[in-house]
Each structure stands twice: as C-alpha cells, then as structure tokens.
Amino acid sequence: MTKPSPTARERIVAGAADMISRRGLNATSIRETAKHARAPLGSTYHYFPEGKQQLATEAVRYTGEWVARSLRRELEAGPVAGLQAFLGLWRKIVVDSDFRAGCPVLAVSIEEPPDDEPPAALVAAAEVFTTWEGLLAASLRERGAEREQAAQLATLIVAAVEGTVAMCRARRSTQPLDHAAEQLRGLILATIRD
Fold it and tell me: What does the domain layout of the chain look like in residue ranges?
C-alpha cells in the first residue's frame, strides 16, 4: 500500500519547518516558504490567512508531533531506546543537511518575540518541549524512576539534545551529540531499575 502524497498545505507546513530549522523564524518569509514547498503563493495565504506566525505555529506543532510519534514508538522499548532514537533523529537531520539544519522548535524559541505578548509559535514551542519531556519522564517512571527525578532527567535530556544540535551545527561535527549520548545514557541507567 502506498502512502498518500502530502497535500499542498502539508507541504507548506513541512517546508516552513525545514526553512525555520535552517534560517530561523525571522529570516524565513512566506514567499520563500511557498517557493521551497513548490506551492503557489496564493495557496499559502489561503491556508494561513493569519500569515507568518500562523504558519510558524503550525510548523512547530508539525515538528513536535513528528518527533513525539518517533519517541512514543521507541520508548515502548524503554528510555534508553527512546534516548537513542531522539539523538538519532537529530543526528540524521544535521548530517543529512550538511550541518545546515537544526530544530525549528528551538529556532522559534530563541528569537526575540515581536511584542510584549508571546506569539503563538513561541507558546506552541513551549508545549512541544513539555510534550517531549512528558513522554521521556513517563518512560523513566515506568522503569522505576521517582516522579521528580524522572521529570528533571527528562528536562535535562531535551535541553542537552537541543543544545548539542546547535553545537553540532556550529562545529560541523556530531561529536557533541556523541558526548551527550554517553552521559545521558549513563544517567538513565543509574536512574531506572531494569
């Protein structure tokens, strides 16, 4: 059975996530996103009448769910497998992009909001990080970690992976991911009862 082709809207959202992961939110325009997604500019405004912030919010949610699906699947085998999948996913992105792409969720999170009110994309980024942490913490608790320890370790894992992805891009090397992987794996094994 073949997978259905993505719709124009899905291509635009995926294209926006890719562009934000490479350029950041402020350097990503609606026009360039439409071109990158091979979609008519009018379609972009049709699907995202609120403009760039709406598209960025959708791109962050798209990335969040894509990563969460992978985490859910791999965490069935335990938190070490989940960690390896999380690291492997980002390793593939940075290597396949020749160290030009990172995480669009992080990219949206580090840019200065345009006004006093946090934009929807930033709120979505916070929700995505919370989801990833929750999935990891639940897996750690299932393997015997105490609630607070599981929550703290899950935060450390997400923060370490996001930070090392940025370091990989700067250094043009996967060494930061390799170092973080060893230390995080050791912390997980010291925390769980397997």
Answer: 60-191
Kindly report the CA angle at 179 between 174 and 183, in degrees rounded to 5? 145
Rounded distance, CA 14 to CA 59, Å?
6
Burial 66-99 (b: 16+ CB within 10 A, else e): ebeeebeebbeebbbebbbbbbebbbebbeeeeb
CA distance 177 to 87: 7
Q: Read off the tokens for 186.
A: 């050791």
Burial classification of residue 39, based on how many CB atoms lie within 10 Å of its CB (0-12 exposed, 13-18 middle, 19 or more buried): buried
Tokens 């700067």 belong to residue: 170
pLDDT tens readout for residues 60-115: 999 999 999 999 999 999 999 999 999 999 999 999 999 999 999 999 999 877 77
Q: Report, at the CATH architecture level, how domain 60-191 is classified.
A: Orthogonal Bundle (1.10)
Cα dist. 140→59, 68, 149, 175, 193 in Å? 28, 16, 9, 26, 9
Give the separation between CA 113 and CA 6, rounded to whole angstroms: 31
* Residue 4: per-residue pLDDT: 64
3-state secondary structure of 123: helix
Residue 43, CB half-sphere, CA atoms under 13 Å: how many?
A: 14
Encoded tokens for 79: 């938190």
Burial of 45 (0-12, 13-18, 19+ CB in 10 A): middle
